[in-house]
Specification:
There is one protein chain. By secondary structure, the chain is an alpha/beta fold. It has two domains: 1-27, no CATH class; 31-188, Glutaredoxin (3-Layer(aba) Sandwich). The chain is 38% helix and 19% strand. The chain is built from eight helices and seven strands; from the N terminus they run H-H-E-E-H-E-H-E-H-E-H-E-E-H-H. The protein has helices spanning 5-10, 14-25, 56-60, 76-94, 107-116, 131-135, 172-182, 185-188, and strands at 42-47, 50-55, 65-69, 98-103, 124-126, 150-154, 160-165. The protein has a seven-stranded mixed sheet. Strand 4, helix 5 (107-116) and strand 5 (124-126) form a beta-alpha-beta unit. The longest helix has 19 residues, at 76-94.
Length: 190
């Protein structure tokens, strides 16, 4: 007969038990780690209702990129987050950084979202096949049809400089802006 999990944890050494309990208390964080190379991608994107082909490599040639994943265009929290990024675009630009949002929504949906919620201030890319989402470990584990709310700062050398994962949209802009500010000056303003 299998022992209940808490009984098995009680039989472990103290450090092992603490680790096991912390794993139970916190969901698994799926994200590329700091210093990992960011997968290069191209995708259909929309800015101000117009579609184009976005290239991460081209964007990185100009400076750092804030790449954020979001579950669904036009949902309340995703609209709040997009609006917050739109309001902060000039602050990112002053630091030499650009912003791109990615979701599994189709390009027609994102074209409208780029005007309405993104206020035509930054592009959003469609990843219906979820190749970019999977490449950045941004798939929502509990709802695999959606991207998780996960933000990355990618330095011009193509490496992850920072990431933040939280379904609450409130801190993504603040945290990524602070991470871009913390980049070495030669890296931030390429």
């Amino acid at each position: 007969m299998a022992r209940p999990i808490l009984s098995r944890i009680a039989l472990m050494t103290a450090p092992a038990a603490l680790y096991a309990l912390s794993a139970l208390a916190h969901p698994a964080w799926a994200a590329l780690d700091i210093g990992d190379p960011a997968p290069k991608f191209t995708a259909n994107a929309a800015l101000g209702g117009k579609t184009f082909r976005y290239s991460l490599a081209d964007a990185l040639a100009k400076g750092p990129v804030v790449l954020y994943f979001f579950p669904a265009a036009d949902s309340n929290d995703c609209s709040i987050e997009a609006h917050a990024f739109a309001e902060a675009v000039d602050q990112f630009a002053a630091l030499g950084a650009t912003v791109i949002g990615v979701s599994a929504d189709d390009i027609d949906t994102l074209s409208k979202f780029s005007v309405k919620s993104c206020q035509s201030r930054f592009p959003v890319a469609s990843d219906e096949a979820k190749t970019v989402i999977n490449g950045f470990d941004a798939l929502m584990q509990t709802r695999p049809d959606f991207a998780n709310r996960l933000s990355y700062v990618i330095s011009p050398d193509g490496k992850v400089a920072y990431y933040y994962q939280n379904l609450n949209p409130d801190k993504h802009v603040e945290r990524t802006l602070n991470a871009v500010r913390a980049l070495p000056k030669a890296t931030a303003a390429k």
